[in-house]
Specification:
single chain; alpha/beta; five-stranded parallel β-sheet; three-stranded parallel β-sheet; 8 strands; globular
Amino acid sequence: MIFKPPKIIRRLFPQLIWNFPDSADVYLTFDDGPSPEVTPCVLEQLEKYNAKATFFCLGKNAEQYPEIFQMILDAGHQVGNHTYSHQKGWKMKTWRYIEDIDFADQIIKSNLVRPPYGRIKARQIKLLSERYNLIMWEIISRDYSRYVNPRQCVTNVTKHVKPGSIVVFHDSRKSFRNLEYALPKVLQFLTENGYKCSSIEL
């Protein structure tokens, strides 16, 4: 699934950031961590290729694994807010959804927010964008899917990536089967094709 939103969505919700069309860099992002089983492996690969990334952390995981969270920061990467408990905005009252994000912000302390599953209501977008930058994506690797094999995961990224792309991976146990194989291959591809991997700084 390569989700490229129709232009009408971008016009209706200009607050949502799907890519950086004026940038020559690629923006790798990792959702759902930090995870002691996976995040250190991701950091090792990123360091090997001199790549920077953005980790959209769950507040509850950052709270449970503060040493792994600090490893991300110490390595010079950016962190973002992925809610405290992986909430779907579509299924929550707006005030409660914002409360969950604000609670996570007490731990993560970032002006970047990515709604889990991309499921967020128009009212939530309006209110959150007053205080946060809402980061979506242009390419999703589908590393989390049991119906995707590791090679397909690589192709999902390398076939579609271009300057300014925001790419989604997951530093979670569920995704590690694909991520362990795909991430080094993707980083090698990007390096060989002259891309610089940067973190999101807004």
